[in-house]
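Recap from last week: sequence in, structure out.
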Amino acid sequence: MYKIALKRVFDLLIALIIFPILLIILIILGPIIYFQDKGTIFYNAPRLGKDGKKFIMYKLRSMKLNAPDLRNEDGSTFNSEDDPRLTKIGKFIRKTSLDETPQLINILKGDMSIIGPRPDLPEHFALYKGNESRKLEIRPGVTGYNQAYFRNTIPWKERIQNDIYYIDHLSWWLDIKIFFRTAKSVLKREDVYVSKEKTKLN
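Predicted structure tokens:
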């Protein structure tokens, strides 16, 4: 019952309650992002959603205009504290995870859930093997099991298996634990960035 219907109801209620906070964040950070290099305040990121459907995931733009698309060895996006592509405000919003806040819009649209597997890039679909495509059985999340307990410290393939574990054990209580564990890791700024040796495919 929770997985089928109540999870979506809770997503909508929480997103609507938090939405005014997103507006305040946009009013404060939007002009700063824009005036640093006169670019758009949003980064529209194509991602894989439920059942493999592609959607646009909204983020606050943390990189300079026309920044090169650097990738890790597993094809995931490069993420480093000393990334020269980041703007000054970009370093702050990336470290505090404020760049992810516009995904409330994705929740309201039905693309995402508050808790769920983090969405992969569309090209990752061709790299799934065995049961790995099962991570697409539910809506991707703004945060999830991996982000709560490991953040950016484990390889992509291991994260997929954790996502499948989450799907198989999905419950209201597990979502609550993930929510508060994520809040703790964000406030402590734990494992925000990942080193290249941790991104290799198993």
